[in-house]
Amino acid sequence: MSGHSKWHNIQRRKGKQDAVRGQLFTKLSRDIYNAAKEGGGNPDTNFRLKVAIEKAKQNNLPADTIARTIAKATGTLQGVTYEELLYEGYGPGGVAIMLEIVTDNRNRTAADVRHIFAKRGGNLGETGCVSWMFQRIGRIEIAREGCPLSYDDLMLTAVEAGADDLREEDDVYVLTTSVEQFSAVRDALEAAGLTLEDAELTFEPTTTIELSEDKAEPVLDLVEALENNDDVQNVYANFTVSEE
């Protein structure tokens, strides 16, 4: 398992599906808000907004919510002003954790996040304490089952488009790119007739700590609690879980 924010194999299923759905909609709306605020409200000229809208639609965010969020961000509707922040800290066992935050009240969010860390054996750190252990990359996922290209052909297509790496993770191919090449690679893959499972700019650890499942459990508890906070957009950590 990688230190990516999805925690595919081990993260436990959460109950209260309506609450989870509401949290997801909040996060998707904030992605759209910040993309539109930064690059304007036209997805044809704002690739970040295009990606955010597509992701929202895939998760059934209502069209009127998308439109209203863009209107707020571009100033045609009055509403709450959000800001994007990066928080850094340590989990149990010295695991490095980075958080992407979108909040309308940084004092409230800092207090809430600090409490979550402290209650679960970690601590919220100072700016720069762990960010040097991560790099900003583009990450694109393609389902292995049904992929019309062989691994070698997919590698050739990806490299020609500017991708840095291709690897297999569980049931998907994962392509990584520089931030600058992300859009070009994504467009080239779609032009080749490939269906993308996910495409996003993310943080990836440069080095990882391997933990047994027992030792990983408190870290996963912390990650889950952080992800459940409405102001936390994404959680990144530099650990893997041993399969032994």
From TrEMBL:
The keyword Iron-sulfur does not apply. Keywords: Cytoplasm, DNA-binding, Transcription, Transcription regulation. It holds the Pfam family Transcrip_reg. Residues 82-239 form the TACO1/YebC-like second and third domain. It comes from the Bacteria. It comes from Alicyclobacillus cycloheptanicus. HAMAP family: Transcrip_reg_TACO1. This is Probable transcriptional regulatory protein J2S03_000557. One of its GO terms (molecular function) is DNA binding. Belongs to the TACO1 family. Its main location: cytoplasm. Residues 5-75 form the TACO1/YebC-like N-terminal domain. PANTHER family: TRANSCRIPTIONAL REGULATORY PROTEIN YEBC-RELATED, TRANSLATIONAL ACTIVATOR OF CYTOCHROME C OXIDASE 1. It is found in: Cytoplasm. InterPro entries: Integrase-like_N (IPR017856), TACO1_YebC-like_2nd/3rd_dom (IPR048300), TACO1_YebC_N (IPR049083), Transcrip_reg_TACO1-like (IPR002876), Transcrip_reg_TACO1-like_dom3 (IPR026564), YebC-like (IPR029072).
